[in-house]
Amino acid sequence: MKKLLSALLLAFIFLAGCYPVTGKLPAINSFDARPASISAGESSTLSWTVTGATSVSIDQGIGNVALSSTRGVAPAATTVYTLTASSSAGSITATTQVIVTGATPPPATLPVINSFTASPSSISLGSPSTLSWNVSNATSVTIDNGVGAVGSSGSAVVLPAVTTTFILTASNAAGSTTATALILVSGVPPGPTGLPVINYFTASPPVIPGASGSTLLRWNVSDATSVSIDNGIGPIPSSGTMLLTLTATTNYTLTATNAYGWRTQTLPVLVTGGGGSSVAYDFVEQATSATWQNGVNTNLGFGIAQNDGFARYHTNQMLDDGNIYPKVLETHPQWVNNGSIRGTYPTMTVPAGAKFTAKVGFLDGATATDGVLFRLTWRESGSPITVSLGGKSVTYGGALDSFEVDLSPYAGKTGQFGLKVEAGPSSGQDWAAWAEAQIIY
To answer: Do the first three CATH levels of 20-105 and 282-440 match, i.e. the same topology?
Structure first.
């Protein structure tokens, strides 16, 4: 009987490992080094804040750390530190760099990934595969999808529940190199194969001209196991309509969730009869709902620092005007000369009397940048053409730069706004930051 119970327990554990664990990925709210540039022999302090993680680690010999803390470091050469936050849903990473002047020059070339393979590369659901790799000239090596930091050579057994691409990243002071290994998984039960899709989320009318009035919310979502709207509405069907009576401008956020994660879209409904200036849309707060791409149309995701360019939040961050801001949006162009990054936001209808306002600058310490150009873009629904509505060329130091765009020519039109940053001839320290980016009326 004991043998039978042991066999049943082993079978249960094996089957439990065959299916994905649902949940939310952790959030790396901040990961910085201050000062970012030191002389050989001096020290810098790493600081970080992470939420929703079961474990946090930093490479370069630091190891496991608390969710929020600081750590003094004294690298002998310019060093990139990688923080990895993990939960049952997977892992995310962020990097920060400490530049060491007067130190031994960094390796002249990027790391070399000699091999990165999966064997077998095609499995049935519940079967294992072995990742193997060999890397030269790297100070750190990581593999995503929960594998984490690894040595320069080795192997790891993985048990993916769906077809998965594993990405190996090898880094040194000169930069990073990546390679991928695809494992095809057959026998996966039918269901969503990716994040939910919000087909539409609209309000009719989007602007209530009086002190109060009604609007009709409409939505349609695909591949979601749960859908909800905030501001007291709660769970809703995957498609439907709802009539609301409002006395003040309200932003409604729809959240669609499945086993792969969640998507959100925020819809402002404006009540214009109350007088004064109101915020119709906050691009900084809604940055996670945008689609981020670089100049060669590579999708970048959000929150992960990488050489292809990235967008992420910083909290309690000092900018180049010497002031600390509770939350800023960093949009770093692709790490090449004249690189760029753009975020395309969800479709919206432009309210009457609206204008765009922005305050922009750089993260503190970006003294090596040669400046960037911040832009607001617009593409009207049904048109393939994206136009620049206005922008500002910004260099490091002094007060933050501001610019405005009059949106009255687009009142009542529906389309997509975008935030874009274009780098100069050099790619060094283009730590472009939006302290404010709003549509007000």
So the answer is: no
